Amino acid sequence: xxxxxxxxxxxxxxxxxxxxxxNSLINQSVKAHEAEEPLNGDGFGIGWYTPEANDMxxxxxxxxxxxxxxxxxxxxxxxxxxCMFAHVRAASISPVNELNCHPFHYGNYLxxxxxxxxxxxxxxxxxxxxxxxxxxxxxxxxxxxxxLFALFLxxxxxxxxxxxxxxxxxxxxxxxxxxxEIKARLKVKEPSYINVCVTDGDTIVAxxxxxxxxxxxxTLYYSEGAAYTCENGIxxxxxxxxxxxxxxxxxxxxxxxxRSDWHEIPxxxxxxxxxxxxxxxxxxxxxxxxAAGF
Amino acid sequence: xxxxxxxxxxxxxxxxxxxxxxNSLINQSVKAHEAEEPLNGDGFGIGWYTPEANDMxxxxxxxxxxxxxxxxxxxxxxxxxxCMFAHVRAASISPVNELNCHPFHYGNYLxxxxxxxxxxxxxxxxxxxxxxxxxxxxxxxxxxxxxLFALFLxxxxxxxxxxxxxxxxxxxxxxxxxxxEIKARLKVKEPSYINVCVTDGDTIVAxxxxxxxxxxxxTLYYSEGAAYTCENGIxxxxxxxxxxxxxxxxxxxxxxxxRSDWHEIPxxxxxxxxxxxxxxxxxxxxxxxxAAGF
Amino acid sequence: xxxxxxxxxxxxxxxxxxxxxxNSLINQSVKAHEAEEPLNGDGFGIGWYTPEANDMxxxxxxxxxxxxxxxxxxxxxxxxxxCMFAHVRAASISPVNELNCHPFHYGNYLxxxxxxxxxxxxxxxxxxxxxxxxxxxxxxxxxxxxxLFALFLxxxxxxxxxxxxxxxxxxxxxxxxxxxEIKARLKVKEPSYINVCVTDGDTIVAxxxxxxxxxxxxTLYYSEGAAYTCENGIxxxxxxxxxxxxxxxxxxxxxxxxRSDWHEIPxxxxxxxxxxxxxxxxxxxxxxxxAAGF
Amino acid sequence: xxxxxxxxxxxxxxxxxxxxxxNSLINQSVKAHEAEEPLNGDGFGIGWYTPEANDMxxxxxxxxxxxxxxxxxxxxxxxxxxCMFAHVRAASISPVNELNCHPFHYGNYLxxxxxxxxxxxxxxxxxxxxxxxxxxxxxxxxxxxxxLFALFLxxxxxxxxxxxxxxxxxxxxxxxxxxxEIKARLKVKEPSYINVCVTDGDTIVAxxxxxxxxxxxxTLYYSEGAAYTCENGIxxxxxxxxxxxxxxxxxxxxxxxxRSDWHEIPxxxxxxxxxxxxxxxxxxxxxxxxAAGF
Lengths: 294, 294, 294, 294
What we know:
The structure is a homotetramer. By secondary structure, chain A is α+β, with helices and mostly antiparallel strands. The first copy, chain A, contains 8 helices and 15 strands. In chain A, the strands form 3 sheets. A 7-stranded antiparallel sheet of chain A has the order 3-2-4-1-12-9-13. In chain A, strands 5-6-7-8-14-15 form a 6-stranded antiparallel sheet. A two-stranded antiparallel sheet of chain A has the order 10-11. The first copy, chain A, is globular. The two termini of chain A are 25 Å apart. The model of chain A has no long low-confidence stretch (mean pLDDT 93). Chains A, B, C, D: It holds the Pfam family GATase_4. Chains A, B, C, D: This is Class II glutamine amidotransferase.
């Protein structure tokens, strides 16, 4: 089912985020605790933002398990960033391959997914049918995730709002509506599990979504507060005293045992974190209606 | 701790051996049942013999986990052989790397190991010090296992017996004695866990050894009988009716739940299978004495 | 532009074919002689047929250059086959990736390509639009080559001839017609360079094709005779004395300097080699007409 | 013979250094101009310094050719550093492997080599015999280069000078003397070609050395001036107006056609660049004497 971590806030070292927490993403690659399948050893990827290269994100992916990748151990300590994505994969249908590793990239956007659009092979061609050439050409792999990302990018071009966080949030919801509509049209009854995270480096939008509310949705949490810190092997989100230090984490499963640090995102809800690090949680109404239709 | 499978007997397909049993080596790469650490995802390797290329073995290794390697799925069905080795790795100290994947190869020999020579860094240079140039030059990786293989090859050159199975068995025992003697000389008190398997394509010798009998040794089993067969998803060793079909398996853990199919190799014992597929189990006396000395 | 070798005839060792000729495919991976771009270091692949596994082909691909792949050196001497494909890649648009390595595989078919369908991004979606689900689902990579293979597989299902070599040849021609028709319909004026080879293990069909005869087509040769042999470093096709030993090679460039060993396949012609190793060379009339139309 | 680039000075983007010059290191990986063997496609590596992680260098290596590595294209634009090493490999004896890729790393040191210590297999064990445990344990690969680095690290511990640049320069010379002495002692007559570069992040020392002055030494150049800049596809070292912008490059071959930008380092000379970016060129006297002895 994959596992991921997203961070936005005061610049911290990628290594601290990935390797140091008790239930770090690296440890989750060996043995996740809040997933049916504990093993996430089918490749991994990291993406991050720094002012260099016109704010384009950096990206490093590998088909090797995250726990034994030598390059990752050397690169992660040299990445200091205010916005980072990291993902460890448990492959379902699509082969283990560099081009199927999350996060996916387009322009200044990064996108990662933990879930399954079941029945994807039946709707794949319909998903790409109306994409503009540039967005279609950016699809390099075979995953349902990357195709959902393409729908998101297409919807993003259509948004009228002038507020970027609103545009991103609406485009993501629209893309999920697209998926459910295409499925309905093609009589695909399998459910979609869409825990997804997208960013442009300034805003993060995350969704916890399932087509059928009677099914169990994969977990998704966020944590907010002052700077996320790792000291003497203990990593915690400090309580916020001032706005300067604020940080937000969005994670597939809790990185620590301190339950009070983590807020569960309700099923079929969306979390938006803007550049002021304000967190907004809202329900995804429309997709519910669409998916409920069959 | 790694897991391995060795096969000798009537030619069978590598795919049937690796993928089909209930507790196949591929399944053990995800979740081994008779090891403390269930995960063996740090690369793998296969070796096999056919008449081509002057009986030299074929070899295929990868740093990717065995469970998701696309090439393995394509190659294994095309290998039909009367003598095969396969190994999935759980790395201890040495990095995950092609050159650290078992089985190791020299001339017509293959060698694989499940265990640890603890304290290896302290004795490594002493282990290679007296090796002849050709054997030393063959060491390409960093593992204790490959260095033990080099000692074995050196001891093999010194054997006087004219019976090849006896030579191989004695050389393997001598190599383990070498390790314990070097450790004693350099005051290295850490134990050795040596479950090891070596073959020249005609004879297989396997050892289950631990320096200190009060410690628990990793498991090692053998199975003998008529042809090993996989039918309708059930893989079993058939009872032997004639010699023509005979086959012997040596495995880190039982491939099936049929307990009667598997004989546990006693700790500090050695199993020799000759080209007539006769199985001989004998105690390793000398190494015991050496290791007991400290 | 890529380079390839296809062999059908008396079983020989893959190693002899790939490594031993003066201008072997391995040497062509470093420095091809009959191509504008001499370097073919962007991955490679081999496919071969043996009776095992219901005649399904074996396959081994890698993103590493063919000249330094350790596994290839170990596997090639253990492959003895009567029908083999090998390909070294010089990537054009599509990324260097396992899934973009030739030969491509479906059922008992293998397919490899040396050339470019220029303007491919513009016709890609149209190429897959009418494919049956099973053939569409088999497309794992991004290359024009694999998409042409899918069109071929689709056309193969439509053939009425009862003679398999004829079916394969016609389906290949029909697939090329499809490409040119789609290009014409979508007003894509870029030319196609299609040197392609397909086999089911019994029959090989190869095409040397270019959309516009005023353009230079990449070279393609065949060689036929008695057994292909490598002795004392010299590899030659022996003259045929009896049918038993016959063999046919199809190659992007001449493997040796013996010009008389190699027949140039004329531009826009097709070579069919059936299971009796009869070679038939014929013109590709229809595609010429189509492509000439714009 | 490999190719490398070292940079120290005003922080610049790794991408500009590696990809933009006319004869960039990436282009040299395909086709070097000042080497007998133009192809350097057997893996590559980059190392760099930033204040993070206690000034330890970052490192990224791959067995894939530098020209087609997707990760490199994403990482290089995000690296902005005042001290960078980059190396593309043409393997001689040692296998193409991550652990054989330069630069090699120990503590805050990076080391890379373009050349060959011929006869290395004969002196390898003698080279490591007297190494302290920590330095010996750091050797992970098989190259002559990494073993020379180990001798350098050992000599570094013995230096008495209090000036770090002097210590590094002397240790490097001492290590080369060590090699020549071991060769003389073991009657190894093959020459050493040692174009080598070492840094601690503040000082770079480079050597152009050959055992026998009648042999041709591989080229080595340096360039100094104001900031190295790439504008409109033209990369040049600007003339220095003030000290603030100063930068120094050390390269296997000239990156541009502007001959005046590049100073050839004379054979058996050493270049030291200190943290003030002062460049000192001096002869290597002692090693000459030693090597001249046989």
